[in-house]
Amino acid sequence: MTQMIATLTQYLSYPFVRYALIVGVLIALCASLIGVTLVLKRFSFIGDGLSHTAFGAIAVATVLNLTNEMLFVLPATIVCAILLLRTSQNAKIKGDAAVAMISVGSLAIGYLLMNLFSTSSNLAGDVCTTLFGSTSILTLSLSEVWLCVILSIAVVATFVFFYNKIFAVTFDEAFSQAAGVHVGRYNLLIAVVIAVIIVLAMNLVGSLLISALVIFPALSAMRLFKSFLSVTICSAVLGVVCAFLGIIISILAGTPVGSTIVAVDLVAFGACWLAGACLKGGRA
């Protein structure tokens, strides 16, 4: 135990480890906040769809040899989030079909482009890294960390400032519309926020595991609490703690960062499920 603490202390003395922890915790916080809304609106897999869209955008940016992929990937993902929202409201193409259509199409086009135009000598490794995350979270520059901090603050501030409107839109869009709330505008805001989170999380857990950051903390919190505010706070706390522990375990054990964080989230969900069952049995 003492040796483990000494090893952890040594790792934390390196700036790149501290950068990874800061970015990982901020991304988990943002994802868990908006995750409650997405789960309650039964739109959980929007994260999965947009992550595949981001994969396609990264492939295009790679083909174009863009030095800063974020300048292309972020706007492209936001545009696709808006299109996904509009498409899902179409009478002929509902939410789940729209997500499947956009996600599968983007993933296929991205992989096709990387095969046709990539100059990398390790294409399979590049694709696997993008899909499942990698150690790139441990190679962040200070400018990338600051960008993540700024965008995360913007996401959290937006959620807090528009909390009442998001709450209303989450539970009853028809009543909110009748009460004078611009439902379409706030649905659009939610779509843009989740798009920003997806792009930020690509380096942390990869495009295939992003949905776990969004879904697991929210579902875990719902096992313990019933009110929207309590679930949101609990989800945020669980998301941050699981991300922190996941990164620490990954560093100490040498395991993949993204997969380790998701594994910790899964364990937390199991613990919350058992705790919720015990509480329910105690009340009975």
> Averaging pLDDT over every residue, what do you get?
78
Instruction: Using the CA coordinates, give the radius of gyration.
Output: 19 Å
Give unreliable regions as ranges. Answer: none
Give me the count of strands.
Answer: 0
Q: Termini separation (Å)?
A: 41 Å
Using the alpha-carbon principal axes, give the shape. Answer: globular
Task: Please report which band the strand proportion falls in: under 5%, 5-15%, 15-25%, 25-35%, 35-45% or over 45%.
Answer: under 5%
If you had to describe this structure to a student in words, what would you say it looks like?
- The protein is mostly helical and 284 residues long.
- The chain is built from 13 helices and no strands.
- It has helices at 2-12, 15-40, 46-63, 70-88, 95-117, 123-132, 142-161, 163-171, 173-178, 183-205, 210-224, 228-253, 257-283.
Question: How are the SSEs placed, and which strands pair?
Answer:
Blueprint lengths: L1 H11 L2 H26 L5 H18 L6 H19 L6 H23 L5 H10 L9 H20 L1 H9 L1 H6 L4 H23 L4 H15 L3 H26 L3 H27 L1
